[in-house]
Amino acid sequence: MTLTLEERKKRLFGNHALTVTPFKECGELDEESTRKLIDYIIEQGVHGILTLGSSGEVFALTVDERKKYVEIAVDQAKGRVPVGVGVNHSSSDEAVLLAKHAASVGADYIFTCPPYYHPHREEGVYRHVKHIADAVKDLPLMVYDGGAGIEISLPLLKRMADTIPNLTCAKLFLPYPQKIALYNGATEGKVQAWAGHDQMNFQMLLYGAQGMTTIASCVLPKEQSDMFNLIQNGQLDEARDIYYKKVCPLSSIAFCNVLQYIQCYKYALRKMDIIASDKCKVVMEPLDNCRKAEMDAVLKFIGVI
């Protein structure tokens, strides 16, 4: 059954796991590990999946790899939870082609950051986002505030909300979580505020975020969903307990060197026997023995190995 745009919008809430992209040791996309990871996080209670963000090494994937991963993810999810697809690209036209492909294979929403590499004024950012949104009018669009180092001002977000009907969510990746509280007023409730900073998601949820995306939910899917649900129910002490005992220790170690957080989470998933290899793209420096020991310690501390 084909859902309307409004029906799709209503499905977007809660804890959406930012998936890693598993590879075999030879460097090829690992379909078996990808399917196993998706089953694991869905069965553990995530509310959705967001593929091909920075956590998925999208910056280093070929177009064919991006398309193949989306096809696998959508097929394996089987409608159990919404699947979002990142179409981040410096070329608006390439982003549109990726968005159209995602829509054609059954993706539930599209995620994009402002165009990067070449500097743009707000008009250029607006035109990029609208170009993508117009190409997939039946799918909700999530825009990245702070992605690629580009902040979306509140006036620009309002303009987008007023003129792009399928703009549904704005995901915040900036070191001031209080901006979450300003989204609703700026857009007159047209755009949901989403948390998108692993080390600040808890605080952003307290400021009123209606959802969050996080790579930590690949390792702690149940705990992250429980934390979200508890906050929504006003059970802040219980939610804080999960954050301090599980989420915070993991993200603090994984992100202590932000250049290696993807490697850290892949290492964790391999240790948990969810993916077969922690292989990353060639630009990603492997973890040394010291970082592996730190990860081993925190994984034992939070009880996943």
From TrEMBL:
GO terms for cellular component: cytosol. Keywords: Lyase. InterPro entries: Aldolase_TIM, DapA-like. It holds the Pfam family DHDPS. SUPFAM superfamilies: Aldolase (SSF51569). The keyword rRNA-binding does not apply. GO terms for molecular function: 4-hydroxy-tetrahydrodipicolinate synthase activity. The active site is at residues 144, 171. Belongs to the DapA family. This is Dihydrodipicolinate synthase family protein. It comes from Formimonas warabiya.
